[in-house]
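Predicting structure from sequence has reshaped protein science. With that in mind, we have picked out one protein's residues alongside their backbone shape tokens:
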Amino acid sequence: MKKAFVRGANPYMPLWEHVPDGEPRVFTHNGETRVYVYGSHDTERTQYCGTDYVVWSAPVTDLTDWKCHGVCYRAEDNSILYAPDVVQKENTYYMYAAEQKGSRIVVAKSDKPWGPFTDPVLTELGFDPGILVDDDGQVYAYWGFCKSYCAQLNEDMATIKPGTLRENPIPHCRAPWAPDDDGFGREYFFEASSPRKICGKYIYIYSRRVNEPVPELGIYEDCNGFLSYMWSDWPLGGWQWGGDISFNGGEILKDAEGKGTMTFRWGNNHGSVMEVNGQWYVFYHRQSGQDEFSRQAMLEPVDVVQGKDGKVWIGKVDFLDGEPVASRPVEMTSQGPHLNGIDARKWISAGYACHLYGGKETAWIEPVYEQREDVSARVMDITDGLTVGFRYLQFGLNTPRTITVVMKTEGAGKVHVRLDTPGGQEIALLEAQDGEVTVPLLGGVTGKHAVYFVFEIVGGKAEMDRFTFDD
């Protein structure tokens, strides 16, 4: 029997799809409740985004089962579309489309959550719009690039209600594109406004560009790989620092002094949080390829809890005597919505790696575009000393007998397969060679584990395509 490929891991859309900036929404339409993701679409390959939006959705009961509804919107002038947002008010779905690379924001309508969205009307909003329909039906908009804005909208969903516009509700970062004004602050707003209402509080999620080192995460220069948030009792101000929800720099390796090292190439980040079937998730994106033009949709479960002081904590939350006291970004994984781990006995594409560290050159994940179920994205430019890691796999109650790895190599070498950490228990040792290589396991492995492939390569480079375990 032909062995199946893992689907719906991280990235949770097929490996051939490249949808960044994903804004998740849960809508019930015709009695069916699904989570919908609206993002820009990296189809140009040499620059950000593309000229269409597509919609993907999954049943709230299974976030590994994603369906593409096709193109839902194209710009009237065929311009490049940046990050959109979609909200529902009464029986109408409103898409805020960012035409002309985000310089022209229009709102289009549909009677279905997957569109098509038609009859676009020019709005008074700006870059990266995020929309909140409040419990009382009032509508608020948030937007900006290196300078944040928010306002209440009129009933037309397009124009700003007089007297409600606020500038710099969140202090912004220092960057070549940032204004030289008094709006700079340690909250470091960059872009990607996404409002939510959680536990009765207003939550302003955004991409944060830090302007100072964050040694525990391996950051020593300006970096905008974060999704962060502020919270308030009021939709247009009074924002208080919340924390960082997501960071797309991969697994963070810590030394004895607590200083971190990233294991994945960080890049811009955009997304939001959504409660799906009782579990909260952060939706974000990672980089594949060698630039930022083939980004992919990712998700992780997050903690969301309210403290006695009213603060909403989002991320990986620490508790003391049952009360939230601290939070940090959730880990970046290969498993995504496979919360119990990826099935180790299916074909696992190397494209699900969340850890690429070491080596003599920078390894990268090959962008693929061929739309088939068994497409695999390779890890490219593997050199001596590289570790390729996957968090996490599920082995079940019985130890498999063998591992098979499909790879290609220009030279000789070995591949050490280790558990839990890059220096952990070795469960297999393979010769680096072209094609399928199958070897018996050296020890028992059951349950859920991280798996790392440590390459010793002599005389050239290697590529890793996919792997699987067998009974």
Remarks:
- The CA atoms of residues 400 and 470 lie 5 Å apart.
